[in-house]
Amino acid sequence: MLSFDEFKQNITRRHFFGQGANAIGYAALASLLGNQTPAFGATDEQAKKNLTHFAPKAKHVIYLHMVGGPPQIDMFDYKPAMNEWYDKDLPESVRMGQRLTTMTSGQKRFPIAPSKYKFEKHGECGMDVCELLPWKAKMVDDMCFVRSMQTEAINHEPAITFIQTGNQNTGRPCLGAWASYGLGSLNDNLPTFVVLVAKPTNTEQVQAISARLWQSGYLPGEHSGVSFRTAGDPILYINNPPGVPAEVRRKTLDGLKALNEINYQAVGDPETHTRIQNYELAFRMQASVPDLTDLSQEPESTFELYGDAAKKPGTFANTTLLARRMVERGVRFVQIFHNNWDTHSNVAGRLPDQCRDVDQPCYGLVQDLKRKGLLDETLVIWGGEFGRTIYSQGGLSKTNYGRDHHPRCFTMWLAGGGIKPGTIYGETDDFSYNIVRDPVHIRDFHATILQLMGFDHERFSYRFQGLDQRLTGVLHAEVIPELLA
Length: 485
Hints:
- The protein is 34% helix and 16% strand.
- The chain has 485 residues and is an alpha/beta fold.
- The protein has a single domain (55-230, 289-483), classed as Alkaline Phosphatase, subunit A.
- The strands form five sheets. Strands 1, 4, 5, 6, 7, 8, 11, 12 and 15 form a nine-stranded mixed sheet that branches. Strands 2-3 form a two-stranded antiparallel sheet.
- Helix 7 packs antiparallel against helix 8 and helix 10 (316-328) runs parallel beside helix 11.
- It is globular.
- Mean pLDDT is 87; it is low at 16-49.
């Protein structure tokens, strides 16, 4: 037998059984929904609404991920009692034999480093905010702070994979892919899920960021995030080569589509259709993306809101402004990564730069969404993959110190999209080391986000390798009602 014939026989056998499983599933779905059952691969909003379990409050999500783990103690989790503990050893009764990273496992001492920054209470909710975040301090009553986030992952790779995909192992769909799969597209000329990687002002210690963080995993490939570059053309080859008119490009794509359809009929690989869809979307984006990224249309008042850095491609301010423009045009999920939060040392030298990068742009984004009537249906998420320790890594002085990874507690904040504004949820001990009230595991966080998007996390699944796979996995997870408006 020829090798291709053997390959075809094997793959079509797998494809047949896959199709059979899908057919059974869709038959069951049809019996539940009657004539409301959407066609496979439907991207029409009305069809996708039929797949939600209840009306979504968040029709869009803008997820601002601070890569490296922001120090909650120096930003949102004020611990004045620690001033009396300066350079004293962290009590074993607090640490309780916690697993350490290789960065501090060899330290003979774990000296406590109180935050060197001043805090004040702001807003009607009385949230403590660091002096490095004056813009966020103005809008605490628009925000919901979760100070009791927790995870099991203590190193970056498993931790960032966990909070993005619900599992420390790679290969699962990320939150944005699940949103794309469940909610579908609102604009056929733009991707449903877009990723932007902002460049920090300070690049002292950046973490690796790879495309696996916005992959679709076992979901169809069309639900992967589309990465926009922050300098030059947003997408490589978005423009036709010199001398190639749109008519020639269209004819070329029609030919490729015909060849791919022949390949699909021969082999039966559903990813072939994903390839066809990607080519077609790329063609449509040639008209939509230049308009999207043309900030000359924005009035000067917009840049006053986000800060002058918004005019500079690649900055965090620029990416947040682009995120608002994307949401305005129907993009479902925008993920922004901002690097260099891994403050093992030199908190005094790096944290001011990090906060300056994100503070006004975050304020501008929330207020901009509000003034355009988009905040109620757009969920904004801010946070890292874990927190930082109260004890110092390396040298300690009154004016500088470092902090190691800390999974037991960290702070995230949310705004809009059905979140209860002016909320402060959860509490940690005096050392910002252990949670003493209302813990929120990453699985609970994901369950709550899915709830806002209109999905019951226990019923929102995808059949893969014989299992109904879920973002929240098989362990216990629950929605946190106190976070919901």
